[in-house]
Structure formats: C-alpha cells, structure tokens
Amino acid sequence: MCGITGFIAPAASAGCRVAEIQRMADRLARRGPDDAGTWCDPQAGIALGHRRLSVLDLSPQGHQPMVSHCGRYVIVLNGEIYNHLDLRQRLDPIDWRGHSDTETLLACFSRWGVRDTLPLTVGMFAFAVWDREERRLTLARDRMGEKPLYWGTLPSGEFVFASELKALRAHPNWAGEVDRDALALFLRHDYVPAPRSIYRGIGKLQPGRWLSVAADGRREEGEYWSLPGAARSGEEGRGQPLSDAAAVERLEALLGDAGRQQLLSDVPLGAFLSGGVDSSTVVALMTRHATARVRTFTIGFDEAGFNEAEHAKAVARHLGTEHTELYVSAADALSVIPQLPAIYDEPFADASQVPTFLVARMARERVTVALSGDGGDELF
C-alpha cells in the first residue's frame, strides 16, 4: 500500500526537518510496514517521508525516497505503475540499479519531464516529486483516484501533503479546524467528497490531476486525464460501430491485458471474491494469466440475506482457486467498530468498511496484494 508525506517550509536546520518528517511518516507505518525513509533539503525547506509495503524489487534498490540517476528528481511514490516495463523499453539504454517501477518513473521524468510522463503511465498511484533544478514540488494522482492524496496549507504558511490525514496531524503547526461545509456534505452523502476534506484548508487532489508548488509558494494545477474527455475522444475517434461480437472480443482483450499487468509482483498475490459478476470476472482473468494457483478470500455471514460466501465458493470451485473463507458473527463485526477511527481519517458511513476490513485482515495472513472487483459496477 505504502504511504507518502512531506512539506515545504521556511529553511531550517536539517535536524529539525528530519525530526518532523520522521514523526509524520511514522504515522503511516500501517500502510508501509516493510521499510521507511526520509529526505530533506534544509536550504529549500523541503522534506519528504515514505513508508513502504514492498511489492516490486524487495531489495534496498527499491528504497524511497529515491533519487533519479541524473540527480535532479527525488520521489516518494504510493502505488504501482503497471506498464513500467513497457516504459523501460521506450527509454534510452540505462544501467538500472534495480527493477522497481519507482526507478522507471524517475527515468521517465529525466527523459520527458514530469507532466509529459503522466499521460504515458498506466497504474494506480499518488506521488510527490521534487525537482532540485527548478526547486518545485509536483503532486499527481492516478486517473480514477485509487490512491489517496491530501494536501493543503497550514495557518503557519507551510505546504503539506500526505496519503492520510493522520500524518498531517503529526506536523507541529497542525491546527485541525473542522470544515462545517464538509461536515454538511458528509451528512448528505455519507462521505466527504473531493476536493474537500473534513478539515478546513486541507483538500484531496482530484483524480487525473497534478499540482505543483514552488519553493517560494507559487502554485500551478492542471489535468492530464478526465473521464468525460476520454469518452469524447473515443466517440470522435471511432470508425464504424463494432458488432456485438466484436465489442465483446475487444472488451475481453482489454480486461485481460489489465489483469495481466496487475499480476506483476515479487510477493504473494490473491483476490477478494464475493461471487458477484465483478470479482468473479477479475478472478477468472487472473487464473488465465497467473503462473500459480490463484488464492481467493471470502467473508461469510450467518444471516442468509447478507451472505455471499456460497456463491463465492461455487465460483472458486469452478475456477479451481485456492479458496479461503471466514464466517464472522455479529460480535466479530462489532469488535471492529472501535478500530475504525484509527483506520479512517475522516467520517465515512458505508457499512462495507467492516467486512472489507475483516476480509483484508484474513487475506494479509497469506498474501501481500489482493485484487478486487471494486469499481466494476461504476464502469459497467
């Protein structure tokens, strides 16, 4: 999962900067239990922190914050660039230090620049990269907003960012005033919609967008992808309408390619399986491309109206997965509730958070990464 955080502040001693960014990064330890790192430039007032969940390149060559080969860029990345091997093929010959997608992304920045690289990426990510030459920090978020990224300016004038709000709350100048307008939106929608957060002055970077901040505080923001724009482009660029059979074949090829790219991992990988159309499709595609038996995980409930475990078991049997299920009681579900404020940084009222936590906790005992069918309803 990984966690990133950082800030731009008036120049101070290196020791002070390290102490502050270390404290902020430590708040993200749950996101990244495998490794931790910080990087500071006291003259520029920039500090970056990272907590790592190792998925690609488990060696020290994947450590972050990572500096580019040319020395110009320093990055903290949360997520995965699925097409990074394809991007490596497009770059000039490089004496690669390791095989992480983070190193690939830095090489792309050195070759094409940050903003021109973004449209070339395929993945789920949130990153912050410091340009030492231009003294500029750029934040970016993936097209669909799978990875979180909060940012804002504290009353003291410092620019801050993080994967989770709890890292920002560790900053010594944090104020934390509740945004009453955001609270009203929560009561209407059961969550706080982007670009707001529950705190005044802190927002979410929206999907498909970048934000750059110079050392002197000047800001720019832009969009490198949008769903309406992609739809318009597809509509304008298509030729003759596809037949139903051709459309199905094309869709299956696209889904298969997406599934294949997401199987690139140096750690055990599995999938959440509910037995519904979305997760069953994901698992079916995984079994087609995986080199080992796919591991699947399901939560079951004794209440028949909420239980999907029997459907999941039937799909797992049909696809031949290594299936694990866990039936939970009402008491098991209630025991999760006191932990939710430590997991979620702002109000979130969807009851799915309880079974999602339970199935993730069960899966983590056997795998490090799990695919799911989340987002299938919205797409289809």
Provide the descriptors you would attach to this structure in a database record:
380 residues; alpha+beta; six-stranded antiparallel sheet; 34% helix
List the helices and strands and how they pair.
Blueprint: E1 3-8, H1 14-26, E2 35-41, E3 46-52, E4 66-67, E5 73-81, H2 84-90, H3 101-112, H4 114-117, E6 123-131, E7 136-141, E8 150-153, E9 159-162, H5 165-169, H6 180-189, E10 202-204, E11 209-214, E12 219-223, H7 227-237, H8 244-261, E13 269-272, H9 277-289, E14 295-301, H10 309-319, E15 322-328, H11 330-336, H12 340-343, H13 353-364, E16 369-371, H14 376-379
Parallel strand pairs: 13-14, 13-16, 14-15
Antiparallel strand pairs: 1-3, 1-9, 2-3, 4-5, 5-6, 6-7, 7-11, 8-9, 8-10, 11-12
Helix pairs in contact: 2-3, 8-9, 9-10
The average pLDDT score comes to 90
**How much beta, percentage-wise?**
15-25%
Order of helices and strands: EHEEEEHHHEEEEHHEEEHHEHEHEHHHEH
- Rg (CA only): 22 Å
Number of strands: 16
SS class: alpha+beta
Residue ranges: pLDDT <50 for 5 or more in a row?
Answer: none
Strands across the major sheet, in which order?
2-3-1-9-8-10
Helix content: 25-40%
Tell the overall outline. Answer: globular
Q: Count every helix, treating DSSP H or I runs of 4 or more residues as helices.
A: 14
The assembly state of the depicted protein chains is: single chain
- How far apart lie the N and C ends? 26 Å
Mind summarizing the main beta sheet? Answer: 6 strands, antiparallel
